[in-house]
Amino acid sequence: MWHGRLVVALVAAISLLGTSVASGQAAAPQRAWDVEFHAGGMLSTNPTNGTTALPAPGPAITTFSGAATRRVSSWYFGDGAALLNQALASIRVDGPLTSLDPVLESAFVRRRSGGSIGFRVERVLTPRLSAEFAVDDNFGSLALRGDSASGIEATRASFAPTWNRILNVPATGGTQTVSSAATVSNRQGRQLLTTGTLLISLNTAGRARFFAALGPAVIVTHGPSPTVTLVGDYQFSLAGVTPPPPLPLVGFHETDTVTVRSSVKNALAGVLGGGLKLALSDRWGLRVEVRDYVNRSTASTLTDATPIPAALATPTSGVLSTVLMLSTNPALQFSTRSDVPSNLSGPIITGFKTFSGTGIESHLNITAGLFYRF
């Protein structure tokens, strides 16, 4: 792994820089404790390996005229997008909806590189060994991957043209109004890294002490994660229907809402690193270090879907109950009757895991800080 090679190279460079300082210097008085504050930068890798899944197709329904079709939870992805595109193909209409499936079945976000700050407390155990506790805050946030952003936009942009083609039929008289909007919350979710390490001194004489560091760490993601919400909406009326007052024109209005979000769980990591501690005085010193945190990916892509079919008519609603079926294959049905379902009446989906990361992450932290001995 390139991070591992970089650790070795940086430690070697630090060793060469400190050789002249270490040579001929008297050993600094030994004190039991060090407290250090430091700052630096953290470089993160972003694996894309993982397992995928999509919600199962919705239950089959029979239309008002006896044709076969299915309930769907959303037209944007999965079985809903497949059914809609099959219906379009059956009537030889070009311009299918661009499914959200490739976005859902991939790593939705990546960890950006960024600055870091932290502190350490060190306890000397022997001339060569020290125990250390450290906390670092990584400012590198989670952000949408480029292919996630472009895939979402392609799906959003294709929704309205697709439904305009479908609903531009004599039954509606061209009364349809279709929209598709995306709301994006991006670049959120930082990391807090808590580490317990053993420091191994590579030399015990002189003011420059070279060391290796190893141990475990816990990585906690704090703050919200990036999310995208797509809202597709279409409404139309039946042509040529003029009910007597006070009943309004028979109309249909359905809304398709999908939220895609990332989830990054806390992770246990292994730590390997090294650096140089340079005593500037009896109590003060400078420390330069490179440290690599390695852990299994805990990133997931979660999907929510909330279908809102046409409002059902009731005896007091003042709306005529009716059904519109389009003779596609599979059929498309819109209904305001309580005994006849619309296609967009599938189950609400909450937190369905469409992608689970399985790769190895690496977070390389390069820091410099000032320590105080007591």
Structural write-up:
- With 374 residues, this protein is α+β, with helices and mostly antiparallel strands.
- It has a single domain, classed as Beta Barrel (Porin).
- The strands form 5 sheets. It has an 8-stranded antiparallel beta barrel. Strands 2-19-16-13-12-9 form a 6-stranded antiparallel β-sheet, with helices on one face.
- Strand 3 and strand 4 form a beta hairpin.
- The protein starts with a helix and ends with a strand.
Taken from the alpha-carbon principal axes, the silhouette is: rod-shaped
N- to C-terminal distance: 38 Å
Calculate the mean pLDDT score and round it.
88
The helix-strand sequence is HEEEEHHEEEEHEEEEEEEEEEEE
Q: How would you sum up the major sheet?
A: 8 strands, antiparallel, barrel
What is this structure, in a nutshell?
This protein has helices spanning 2-22, 78-90, 101-104, 146-167; strands at residues 33-44, 50-52, 60-62, 68-70, 109-111, 114-124, 129-138, 142-144, 177-185, 190-201, 208-222, 227-237, 251-264, 267-279, 284-296, 299-308, 323-326, 332-335, 349-357, 360-373. The chain is an alpha+beta fold and 374 residues long.
